[in-house]
Amino acid sequence: MEDSYRHKGMRRQLVKVVRSKGIKDESILAAIGKIPRHFFLMDSALMEHAYDDKAFPIGEGQTISQPYTVAFQTELLQVKPGEKVLEIGTGSGYQAIVLLEMGAKLYTIEYQKKLYERTKVFLPQLGYKANFFYGDGSMGLKRFAPYDKIIVTAGAPTVPTALIDQLSIGGMLVIPVGNAKTQKMLRLTKVAPGKLRKEEFHDFKFVPLLGEDGWKGK
Ligand code: SAM
Predict the structure, then answer these.
(1) CA nearest 10: which of 27, 41, 22?
(2) For ligand 1, what atom is nearest to the CA of residue 209?
(3) What are the tens digits of pLDDT across the range 117-160?
(4) For strand 183-192 and strand 195-204, is the pairing parallel, antiparallel, or unpaired?
(5) Is the full-model pTM beyond 0.85?
(6) pLDDT digit string (tens) for 58-107?
(7) 18-58: per-residue pLDDT in tens?
């Protein structure tokens, strides 16, 4: 697939839009300016809109998140180079690449087998290395815990306890929590063993977090 001057121009425009919505972290804006988002859209009819600040279908009833949402969650997560990050909901891999561009050592888990299989092949083809897993991320990924940061890219009914357990001390979890229609973005910081600081941000709309401690268990 080609990454033309026209695509690059559209990306610069997208960066302006995301910046105008309040994203300040230059490294996140640089990542959005670098990643060819049109490579991630499955439907050629959508290619023209790849750099609109919108979510799009990626198959299996799932979506690639809106770039502003990706940037907002990444900014809240405050990823530093070398940090161990767990992403719940690999999806297209776009958010994963933004985290890798921030220098994360990334573990990412996806519930839909077809998306897992596609993305674990596609990201290395683009030159990005991550640890890909297929399974229920509402239970976290205990084998490699604890994590410095955890990001959930699907809407949860409640905060899954496994994710809190698998955070290191000082670690942060960014997760949208709410009902099927709207979810509030939360940032939970594990300030000491058994002690969390909770911050609330504005509302978003995500596809549902499935699995035992997602909507299936409710
Ligand atoms: N980060 C993705 C991206 O950049 O394309 C966002 C994809 S979409 C908004 C959310 C993803 O979460 C979907 O791919 C969905 O299949 C996945 N998902 C939902 N419930 C899950 C669960 N329990 N464990 C792992 N992934 C889950």
Answers:
(1) 41
(2) 20
(3) 999 999 999 999 999 999 999 999 999 999 999 999 999 999 99
(4) antiparallel
(5) yes
(6) 889 899 999 999 999 999 999 999 999 999 999 999 999 999 999 999 99
(7) 999 999 999 999 999 999 999 998 787 888 899 999 999 98
Domains of the chain: 5-217 (3.40.50.150)
Strands 131-134 and 105-110: parallel
CA geometry: angle 23, 196, 99, nearest 5 deg: 35
Per 3-state DSSP, what percentage of the chain is helix, strand, and coil (rounded to 5)? 35, 30, 35
Q: Which residues of 8-43 are buried (b: 16+ CB within 10 A; e: fewer)?
A: eebbeebbeebbeeebeeeebbebbeebbbbbbbee
The minimum-distance atom of ligand 1 relative to the CA of 138 is 23
As a whole number of Å, the end-to-end CA separation of the chain is 42
Rounded Cα gap, residues 59 and 114, in angstroms = 9
Q: Of residues 20, 27, 65, 168, which has the active-site annotation? A: 65
